[in-house]
Write a structure and sequence with these properties.
With 434 residues, this protein is an alpha/beta fold. The chain contains 13 helices and 13 strands. 34% of the residues lie in helices and 16% in strands.
Length: 434
């Protein structure tokens, strides 16, 4: 589901809270590996969204210390599981329900690990099918937070992936919105450290606490297509296409928030003005989904657009690597939680996307990321103009630079390093002798 705040109008800038104060490390990695308990209702073999994130986060976190994941006994729809479960991660899947007394009944076994840190992955709808409203999670957070403060170990950390349902005056929507905000307030107050997927979310969590304001740090979420070592060895688009061909792609779902009619119209108009033969590939979507959004452009889509349909992760990554660039329109601008865009960067693919004042700063100032307005009319005009340039877009971009940017900011290794630093678990650099 799209982020809860997706308007494009500029808002007053809010200064982020100061960096998290460096507490004394719970565990020094120079002497002992920390024990970390990750709490998530979704885990391998559930691949989409939170399930994939938890699996990959735990897989790489296990290089840092001893890791256990506390998860649901039944984790929902599985589908095809690619890859393999992390072999070094202990799975405690004894939670029948996260509502009522469910998590409290199952808690004792999870705490048998005697963890140094407890990371709760927060997505309200993942803990309850009833509108995502579940105050048992808030109670659990306060219990874990109190335990940590009493015992001096097992500090509680909350990772916010989603916050709350968008507000509207419909009674059901209003109730969900207010309940989710109350849940975010409660778990934020209970935790000793708070992380969020984007700068915007960090600001919202901090402001939601009102006079009880606490620092919130940004921790990226990574790509669901990341492959260790393989992308750099593959040839890029320039090695496989004709000189007069320009390969453009869209990737991900056909959700209405992506404004497919506008984006397709801009590419159609740009292709008519381009000196290149523009070849559009839509990766991961079905033709029925696209035709339902295409409107008057349906005949053009039928005859000029390649539609791959759903693909396995490795196939999707390969198709991305064959393109010249990705087009990704976001109503509220680019951010570090846009998995489709991160997947393209992981494959070394330049991107055309949108910028909003609340977007994450890491995306600014790069030749391989073209930032356009998130106003629909301006975006369409700027995108069409990009095709009309005499020079091939992004022709001077080296794909190794794109991959290096991804590895530096969004690879799972970088995410775990950032987590270790924020948690006070990073290895200390030896001081030089006087």
């Amino acid at each position: 589901m799209p982020g809860p705040h997706s308007r494009c109008a500029a808002r007053p800038r809010v200064t982020l809270a100061p960096p998290v104060a460096r507490l004394r490390p719970t565990v020094s990695l120079t002497s002992e590996r920390p024990k970390i308990l990750v709490v998530s209702p979704k885990y391998f073999p559930v691949e989409e969204g939170l399930g994939h994130y938890t699996t990959e986060f735990c897989r790489h976190l296990a290089k840092l210390g001893r890791v256990a994941v506390w998860t649901s006994r039944s984790r929902g729809r599985v589908g095809k599981a690619s890859g393999h479960p992390p072999g070094d991660v202990e799975v405690i899947d004894n939670v029948e329900s996260w509502s009522g007394v469910g998590p409290f009944v199952a808690l004792r076994r999870a705490l048998a690990l005697d963890p140094d840190a407890i990371v709760v992955e927060f997505v309200p709808f993942m803990y309850s099918a009833r509108g995502g409203i579940n105050f048992s999670i808030v109670g659990l957070a306060f219990l874990l937070g109190a335990r940590s403060r009493l015992l001096g170990r097992g500090k509680l950390q909350i990772m916010f992936h989603e916050l709350w349902y968008p507000f509207s005056w419909r009674p059901k929507d209003a109730v969900m919105h207010l309940a989710h905000r109350a849940m975010v307030f409660g778990v934020s107050l209970a935790a000793e450290e708070r992380f969020s997927a984007t700068k915007r979310f960090a600001e919202l969590v901090r402001r939601n606490l009102g006079p009880f304001e606490r620092p919130v740090s940004v921790l990226a979420v990574g790509s669901n297509l990341e492959r260790e070592g393989s992308p750099a060895a593959k040839p890029d688009a320039a090695a496989t296409r004709a000189d007069d061909e320009l390969r453009v792609c869209l990737f991900g779902s056909a959700h209405p928030s992506k404004r497919l009619p506008m984006v397709l119209g801009a590419i159609h108009d740009g292709a008519a003005r381009s000196r290149f033969r523009v070849r559009l590939t839509m990766i991961g979507m079905t033709k029925a989904e696209i035709l339902a959004e295409a409107g008057d452009l349906a005949p053009w889509v039928e005859s000029n657009v390649e539609v791959t349909g759903p693909l396995e992760a490795s196939e999707a990554a390969d198709r991305l690597g064959e393109q010249d660039f990705l087009v990704s329109y976001f109503q509220d601008g680019v951010s570090g939680r846009r998995g489709s865009l991160l997947a393209a960067l992981c494959e070394g693919l330049p991107v055309v996307t949108t910028w909003h004042p609340t977007s994450d700063e890491e995306f600014r100032g790069h030749e391989f990321i073209k930032l356009l307005s998130c106003d629909e009319a301006e975006f369409a005009r700027e995108l069409a103009a990009l095709f009309a340039t005499a020079e091939r877009p992004f022709s001077r971009v080296a794909r190794r630079d794109v991959r290096a940017f991804y590895r530096r900011h969004f690879s799972w290794s970088a995410i775990v390093d950032r987590y270790a630093e924020l948690s006070g678990m990073a290895r200390e650099t030896p001081r030089p002798s006087p």
